[in-house]
Amino acid sequence: MTNVTEIKQKTKQIIKKHKSNKSALIAVLQDIQEAFNYLPKEALKTASNMMKVPMSRVYEAATFYTAFSLKPRGKHIVKICKGTACHVRGAAILQDRFETTLGIKPGETTKDGKFSLETVNCVGACALGPVVVINTDYHGQVTINKVDKIIKKINNEEGAQQ
Q1: Rounded CA gap, 43 and 8, in Å?
Q2: CA gap 144, 44 in Å, rounded
Q3: What residue spans define the domains of the chain?
Q4: Which CATH class is domain 76-161?
């Protein structure tokens, strides 16, 4: 877990990179999210103060875009496409399998902080449906068996890195 001082220092570096430009608020929030995997309250306060943008405006941007999260997310973010093409090809069954395998519902994070589960309206890869995006990796034509293989592969890779 990152402490408040570290959050403030990293956020200040991000804002300086954008030259405290008010019009760069979204870019700053994106960089903060990339640094912490969510938008910590202290980072939002620091951004508001340094960029001279009212906290209400910062919060408005942070809550408007679904790509931003105000609560900590897992190291691996699993996004299940629920668009029409994916839906008719079994996205709901995949969601059930991920929920069972990970022990969480959409919007939740596993206790070990390894996975967060989300559903999205469309990822724009309809021909590959059903599609699951994990971090930035697209997995097309996912089946129930592939769900288990994907999770096992991630867990094995992490085990090898430790």
Answers
A1: 6
A2: 39
A3: 4-64, 76-161
A4: alpha beta
